[in-house]
Amino acid sequence: MRRGRLKGPLGSHERPASPLGFRLVLAVFGAVVLLVGTVLAIVWAHSVPLAIVLGAGTLAACLNVYWVGRRLRHER
């Protein structure tokens, strides 16, 4: 294993690509799905408990998107 700062571009042999980009895509997709589910629970199903649960999941997914974005920005 090499010591010191890695100098190659991201994705090269010296500095392999991080899975955080793909994780960000999955996090955004999950947040969008939960948001759509929350809206449908309110408008179509008229279910307040389901809307609360899905809304909490949406907030958690948005926090995950923020966290993964910060990690990705810090890595670059």
From TrEMBL:
The chain crosses the membrane at residues 20-44, 50-69. The keyword Membrane applies. Keywords: Membrane, Transmembrane, Transmembrane helix. The keyword Transmembrane helix applies. It comes from the Bacteria. This is Uncharacterized protein. It comes from Nocardiopsis sediminis. The lineage of its organism: Bacteria, Bacillati, Actinomycetota, Actinomycetes, Streptosporangiales.
